[in-house]
C-alpha cells in the first residue's frame, strides 16, 4: 500500500482563494490540494483543516505515531507564531512534520517572523504560494529516501 502524507491546515486557510488575494492568491486551497492529491503517485495524500487549536493538537496526537504516515505537512496559520501547545505536540510525536506557509512570512510584518514550531519541525517551506505544499510533499518523500 502507498504511504500516507497528511496535510493539516490551521485557522483561516479554508478561506484561501477569497482571503487577501494579493497575499494568498485567487485559487482555492481545496481545489489545489485535490489536484495535488490526484497528481501525486508516490503517496496517498489525506488532509484536514481546522480553525481550532485543540483540533490540530488532537489530530497530531491521533496520527503522529502512525508508522503508515511518512510525514505531516502543517500550515498552522497564525498559530505558527503563538502556539507553544502545537509546538509541544509536534515535539511529542514520532512522524516528521514539515512546516509550510503560502506566503514568505520572513518578508511580512515582524510578528510573523518568529515561528514557535520551526525548532521542532523537520524543515520549513515558505513563500512559494500554493506550490509550497507540492514542495513539502517532495521534501517528505526525500526525507524517506535518505533513511
Ligand atoms: C500563513 C502565514 C501566517 O502568518 C498567517 O497567519 C496565515 C497563513 C501562510 O500560509 O502564509 O494564516 O501560514
Describe, in plain words, how this protein is organized in 3D.
With 147 residues, the chain is an alpha/beta fold. It is 35% helix and 19% strand. It has five helices and five strands, in the order βααβαβαββα. The protein has helices at residues 21-24, 29-39, 53-63, 84-92, 131-146, and strands at 4-9, 44-49, 69-75, 97-101, 123-126. Strands 2-1-3-4-5 form a five-stranded parallel sheet, with helices on both faces. Helix 4 links the parallel strand 3 (69-75) and strand 4 (97-101). The chain is globular. It binds 1,3,4-trihydroxy-5-OXO-cyclohexanecarboxylic acid.
| Beta-strand content bin | 15-25%
Structural class: alpha/beta
Order of helices and strands: EHHEHEHEEH
Strand order of the largest sheet: 2-1-3-4-5
Bound molecules: 1,3,4-trihydroxy-5-OXO-cyclohexanecarboxylic acid
- pLDDT below 50 for ≥5 consecutive residues: which ranges? none
What is the number of beta strands?
A: 5
Assign a percent range to the helix content: 25-40%
Taking all Cα atoms into account, the compactness measure Rg is 14 Å
Q: Count of helices?
A: 5
> Average pLDDT across residues?
96
In angstroms, what separates the terminal alpha carbons? Answer: 19 Å
Reported for the largest beta sheet, the result is:
5 strands, parallel
Itemize the secondary structure elements and their pairings.
Layout: E1 4-9, H1 21-24, H2 29-39, E2 44-49, H3 53-63, E3 69-75, H4 84-92, E4 97-101, E5 123-126, H5 131-146
Parallel strand pairs: 1-2, 1-3, 3-4, 4-5
Helix pairs in contact: 3-4
The structure holds 1,3,4-trihydroxy-5-OXO-cyclohexanecarboxylic acid (DQA).
